[in-house]
Structures are given as structure tokens and as C-alpha cells.
Amino acid sequence: MGIVVLTMKASVIEMFLVLLVTGIHSNKEMTKKIKRPKFNVPQINCDVKAGKIINPEFAVKCPAGCQDPRYHVYGTDVYASYSSVCAAAVHSGVLDNSGGKILVRKVAGQSGYKGSYSNGVQSLSLPRWRESFIVSEGKPQKGVTYPSALTYSSPKSPAAKAGETTKAYQKPSVPGTTSQPVTLMQVPGTTPAEATHTTLPRPSASAGSTTSSPRPQPVGHRSRELDLWSTITYPSSQNSPRANPGETDLWKPGSVLLDAGFVPKEELSTQSLEPVSQGDPNCKVDLSFLIDGSASIGKRRFRIQKQFLAAIAQALDIGPAGPLMGVVQYGDNPATQFNLKTHMNSRDLKAAIEKITQRGGLSNVGRAIASVTKNFFSKANGNRGGAPNVAVVMVDGWPTDKVEEASRVARESGINIFFITIEGAVETEKQYEVEPNFANKAVCRTNSFYSLSVQSWFSLHKTVQPLVKRVCDTDRLACSKTCFNSADIGFVIDGSSSVGTGNFRTVLQFVANLSKEFEISDTDTRIGAVQYTYEQRLEFGFDAYSTKPDILNAIKRVGYWSGGTSTGAAIHYALEHLFKKSKPNKRKLMILITDGRSYDDIRIPAMAAHHKGVITYAIGVAWAAQDELDVIATHPAKDHAFFVDEFDNLYKSVPKIIRNICTEFNSQPRN
Question: Cβ distance 442 to 368 under 8 Å?
Fold first, then answer.
């Protein structure tokens, strides 16, 4: 019996060992068959910006060629999320231009980003931005899980072109709210492919769980929240729409702002059939507001800006007999929200302002001013010609491009530029400004009349009445085109022997008396002079002097030449050496003074001057030939040819010449 028991135990043990060995072998076989999934690194294009990707930390593969300057980068080491991810990687040295894998980690926004040149990439400076990122080599960190598919803020991500599977980011709903879709219409200059249909839910006062995410602030500066917006009142606009104090500034990476040239469809004119004001006739101006729609301003500040516009609209008393107002919003590019003739009363204008949606992007003020100069103040957009043109530029902080050149062209075009700078750069932030002292370089005059600096968005409402008063003070709008500030005037002076030294000084006094009547600067009227005998010489060109005292001193220094009288050659010389350098948007006036008949033909040069648009005044003294004066002068000759019997009577013709210049100017459209 004992033997049988031992045999059975041995069999059981043997069976157990067989099963154990079989199980281990089977497990090994299954392990061989089951392969671990390989981690897939998403690929993106060079133009993908970090801000478009929702994931806080991720790995991506960049293609070759991202060193190209069209892929913009902002900052050094720490980059604004508006930067190209791959171009930033090249700038930082993590990648070369052949591409490769990188790791990206989102970090907090900065109060400023400094540009630099590194690894063939020029990064740019940028004011405060809501979000930043850093890049590192593409070696996965232990304990960090990287997504195999990225989440984008828009379903139409550029990365989709690279064949990557993308997920459209949906903004989480807020309890007690409903999403209202915004219908978009295309603005000329954009393509259908650029349109983005977005639903932006608006939180209600009941959404108590929401939190505010204001624009990143530098330490010790601008830390005040604007939750007390409901306490601000506009004394001039009791009926202006109020911001709901329960609304908060939900700035999330997934918020898609429209910056593709589209504006809401409902911003078409909604004219009422009820009797409305014809406008304040004491404030007849054509006004354009350039408002800041950049991403750095944030939603709450953008809302305050709209409240300010509504108060301005109410205070101005908009109407066809008074002021007319249009709005241009700028970000990366400007877009006209509505022009001068879209809304013809304050009520409709305020309703349209309320419907403006933020575009996002950078703060490209210079580009916006250039666009307004070229396109906004046209007859098709409601410009009335006789009314002064005014552009009020609102800037949060500082622009991301240069404004000086665009503003100069605007001023020369007769546009009175005002700047309102809100929360401008403090001393520690001035290093981030693209163009120091930008406001003074832009405004119509640097006399503080055209520039307002507001310390806080919280106090913006205090500038409503001061701004309205200045805009309506048409007598002080010095950059409006007038007959005194919109010309290049070239004097062609006879220095022949028959004039004599004493009379030549009298001629120079006559030139000075005429010049004194004009507003002289590099953007207003400019003066040049040519003296001639048989030969010709340029005494000074249009760009030589830019102030009235300097011009008058230059006229005094002109020396008497003496010689023959070749008036035809002198006109030709003035066209080639003086008026060829005249600015395109300036009226060209030639004032020729001679005391005798020309030794050469004057007809062909005079016709050339008329053909080139040079308005010619011919002033004859003593022995000058009236028939030649009539040929030289612009038609009708009776308004452009003058004769005095002696040099001492030249001064008597100054008022009549000025009157004729202004009469002719006022008979033409001003802008």
C-alpha cells in the first residue's frame, strides 16, 4: 500500500512539473507573438504655432527648411506661443535646418520677449503675451506621457496637411449658458479657405465656477483686476451698454479669434425709420477709430474699449450734417468693421460697436495706419471731402511694428492722427518696444494736443470728453489739407544782369513774403528755389529745410548771379532738378519771377510743366513780355499771370497770389 501511495505522489509531482514547464513555454511563445505598440511622434509643418496646440507638453517631428524667415519667432530661449514651434527649435539650437524630433513644454506668459539672431533665425521682440513655451531635444523624459495625436484649437490646423490625425478642440460648456454661433461674411481680400466658423460660448453671471485669466503682468505692475468695471460710468452716455459684472475673462488656449479678414454679418447697417438727429453741425469731421484687437489685450479690456467707443459715439452726436464715424480693428492685419456711411446716427453706431468681435494676433499699428490712409478715407467709403479727416489710434501697451513712416504718409495725406496709449511701457519694459517714443513719431503734432496717455484701462472713461473736444476743434486740426500746408512750391528766380543787385534783394523779399504765408515742415508745405541767367543753379531743394525760420534764412543767403535770360531752359531745369523730387501726394506750384523777354523758347518747357501737373504762376516786372507770361502761366492765364511795372510794387501782388492759390485749392476735393 505504501508503495502505491509513493507511486501516486511521484506521478502527481511529475504532472505538476510538466504543466509548469508547458505554462512557461506557452507564456514565452505568447510574449514573442505580442509586440508592444511603437510610440508615434506627430509630425507638424514649419508654420504651426505653439498657441494652436492645446496640449501642455508634447513631442513633435519637424520637417526640413524651418529656418526660413517667413516662419516668425518671438523671444529668446522662452518663446511666445505666437511663434512657429519648429523655427523656435532651430533658433534655440535644438534642431538644425534638416529637421527632427523635439520636446515642447508650455509655460506661463511673459511681460516681454526680446528678439535675437541665432542659428540663422532672426527672432523678434514682442510685448506681453498670454502663453510661452520652451523647446528641448527629442528624448522622452521618464514618467512623462506624450500624446500620439495633438489637440488643436481649430479643426483646420495646418498640421493636417502633414497627414497627421488631429482632434478639434471644443471649449467646455459653462453651466447655465448657451452657445450662439456667429455667422461670418467674407471681407474682400480673403479667400474662402481662410474662413473659420467658431462658436464662442459667453459665460453668464450664474457661472460662479468660472475664473478670470487676465493678461500676464510683470511683477509689481498692472496687477489690478478690472472686476469693478460696473463701477465705471460715462457721464456723456447714460444709455451706453454696460458690461455684465458677472462676466469673466475666459482666455483659454483654445479660444479662436478671427484674424482672417472676416467680420460678423450682422454688422450691416440697421437704419431706423424713426426720426433721428442729423448730427452736430459744429463738429463736422470724418472720423476713423483704429481699435486694438490683438490677443494681448484680453477679452475684458477689449470689452472696455468697446464701451469707450460707444460713449464717444453718444457724445459726438453722429449724423450726416455732423460727425461721421467708422471703425477699423487691427491685429496681424487691419479689417474695416464699418465705414463712414454705414451708420448715420449714434444709436445705430452704438449697436454696431456692441457686436464687434475680437480678432486676435499681434499689434501691427503701422500696417493699420497705412491701410487707413490708402483705403478708408475714400468717397466710396463715405468721405465727404470738405470735412477734416481724423484717425484715432488706440494702443494697449505698444505696437509690434513701426509706425513712423506710415504716419508720415498719413499726415501728408491730410489725416489728423491722434494716439491714445493705454498702460504704456514702464521703464523696465521699454527695452521691448519695437520703436521707442512711437506716439510722438505718429501724431499730427508733438504738442500733446494729439496724444493722450492713460495709465490704466480702469480710467479710460475719463478721456471721453477731452477727446471729443479735441476732435471737434476743427480750427486746431493742423494736419487737415489746406492751401497752406499741402504743396511743394518751387521759386524760379531771374538773376540776369538787367535785374541788378538792389532789385534782386527786393525779389528775394517778395519770395520770403510769399513763403511766410505757408505752414512749412517736412510733412506740410516745402519750399525750393532755382536761380537762372543763361545757366541755372539749384539754390536749395524741397528736402533741404523743414522749418519756416530756416527757409527764410536760406532765401536771404541766395547770392545774385548776373547774366542773360534763358527762361525756357530754367523751367526745364526746375522740372528735372526740383520738381522731380516732389512727393506724389503734394500739389506742385512753380512761381517764376522775371524782368524781361526770354532769349530762348519758352513754349515747349511751359507745356511740359502743365503736362506734369505743375501749377505755374508767372510774375513779370518792368520789361517782361505779357505774351510770354500768359504762355508760361497755367490756364486760365488771368488767374496765374501777374505784371507789375516796377520791383518796389512786387509786394502788392502777394495777397492776390495767395488768394488765387487758395481759391484754386478749395475748388478741388481736399482728400
Answer: no
Spatial distance between the Cα atoms of 214 and 162, rounded to a whole number of angstroms: 34
- Say how far apart CA 200 and CA 64 lie, in whole Å: 36
DSSP-based three-state secondary structure for 137: strand
* Strands 587-594 vs 536-540: parallel, antiparallel or unpaired: unpaired
On the question of pLDDT at 292 being above 90, the answer is yes
> Cell 524667415, residue?
69
- Please write the tens of the pLDDT for every residue from 165-182: 444 334 343 343 444 443
**pLDDT tens digit string along 553-594?**
999 999 999 999 999 999 999 999 999 999 887 899 999 999
- Closest Cα to residue 81, out of 255, 275, 303? 255
647: its cell numbers: 520791383
Q: Which residues pair with 334 in a beta bridge?
A: 330
Interatomic CA distance for residues 84 and 466, integer angstroms: 42
Between the alpha carbon of residue 71 and those of residues 87, 122, 399, 433, 618, the distances in Å are 6, 10, 20, 21, 58
300 residue type, one letter: R
| Rounded mean pLDDT, 70-88 | 90
Q: How confident is the model at residue 303 (pLDDT cuts 50, 70, 90)?
A: very high
pTM given for the model: 0.55
- Greatest Cα pair distance, the chain, in angstroms, is 161
How far CA 371 is from CA of 331, 376, 393, 407, in Å, comes to 13, 7, 13, 11
Residue 263 pLDDT: 42
Q: Cell match 513780355: residue?
A: 625
307-331 residue pLDDT tens: 999 999 999 989 999 999 999 999 9
Whole-number mean pLDDT of the chain?
80
Pairing state between β 415-422 and 451-454: parallel
Q: What is the C-alpha separation between 93 and 73, in angstroms, rounded?
A: 13
CA distances, 262 to each of 184, 327, 483 (Å): 6, 14, 39
Residue whose entry in the numeric block shows the C-alpha cell 499726415:
411
* pLDDT range class, residue 260, cuts 50, 70, 90: very low
Write down the residue that cell numbers 501516486 correspond to: 8
Question: In 3D, which of 222, 283, 127, 243 has the Cα closest to residue 454?
Answer: 222
Neighbour-count burial for 278-317, b at 16+ CB within 10 Å, e otherwise:
ebbeebbbbbbbbbbbbbbbbbbbbbbbbbbbbbbbbbbb
The residues near 460 (Cβ < 8 Å, ≥ 6 apart) are 304, 305, 308, 420, 422, 454
Question: Per DSSP, which regions of 234-322 are E strands?
Answer: 262-264, 286-292
Exposed e or buried b for every residue in 456-478, given b needs 16+ CB within 10 A?
ebbebbebbeebbebbbeeeebb
State the DSSP H helix or E strand holding residue 309, giving kind and residue range, or none if neither.
helix 298-316
- For 390, the 3-state DSSP assignment is strand
d(C-alpha 465, C-alpha 234), whole Å:
9
Residue 641 C-alpha cell reads as 499771370
Backbone phi and psi for residue 563, each to the nearest 5 degrees, phi listed first: 155, -150
* Listed residue (308, 310, 383, 292) closest to 348, CA to CA: 310
pLDDT tens by residue, 514-557: 999 998 988 889 999 999 999 999 999 999 999 999 999 999 99
Q: Please determine, for residue 121, whether its predicted confidence score (pLDDT) is greater than 80.
A: yes
- Nearest-Å Rg of the Cα atoms of the chain is 36
